[in-house]
Amino acid sequence: MSLFEVRDLWVSYGKALILEGLSLEVEEKELVALIGPNGAGKTTLLKAISRVAEPRGSIFFEGQRVDHLSPVEVVKRGIIHCPERRRLFPDLSVEDNLRMGAYLRSKDKDGVQRDLELMFNLFPILRERRTQDAGTLSGGEQQMLAIARSLMSQPKFLMLDEPSLGLAVLVKKLIADTIKDIRKRGMTILLVEQDAVLAFDMADRVYVLELGKIALQGLPQELMENPYIKEIYLGIV
């Protein structure tokens, strides 16, 4: 049984149909990438899973349906959404942003402090910036903070939405290496990523989402040999 599964998911915004009968699954400790053009519905899928958007269909986590839960209850189950464009608290310090990620763990003071140290070890630059306002960080530092804040929730299933968006090439590589490191520690990850090359490098499996539907799926090495993927997503003619 998969750790996470979506079956026949439909999502609309008003009269606009965004997702049409989408199905996918993620195994425990697997990193699955979801790629596709802008407007394909990638972010909408993550919003539906985290219950920010209202889905029709079935979402299963650890063998139980979670599509009826509130956003807070979804987080309590261990499903954590690291959103596109970071969504930090810009006027709060780095450390306070991290503590906000653990807001449901208020009684676990020792555990929160332990995880703070873990985040500072995983992202050493955040230790240096711990008293600095999040809004003054560079784009790459903000992305590190966003990922670290999500990890402070102790996720069982981490959804990353466009973590490389707007970053320079060297910073993209640093973020990708960090995600690989998190995955090696046993984290299960659903990665939405516009940069197909980056996604193929990190993923165990890849889904291609186009016009609200899964157009292709498979192992990265298989999809990279597909002429359509080569031309449209990898820029190889």
Characterization of this structure:
This protein is an alpha/beta fold. It has a domain of 139 residues: Rossmann fold. The chain is built from ten helices and ten strands. The strands form two sheets. Strands 6-7-8-3-9-10 form a six-stranded mixed β-sheet, sandwiched between helices. A four-stranded antiparallel β-sheet has the order 2-1-4-5, covered by helices on one side. Helix 3 packs parallel to helix 6. The protein is globular, with a radius of gyration of 18 Å.
Uncertain spans, ≥5 residues at pLDDT below 50? Answer: none
Helix-strand makeup class: alpha/beta
Counted by DSSP, the helix tally is: 10
Portion in helices: 25-40%
Please write the CATH class name of one domain. Answer: Alpha Beta
Largest sheet: 6 strands, mixed
Q: Could you state the order of secondary-structure elements as H and E?
A: EEEHEEHEHHHHEHEHEEHH
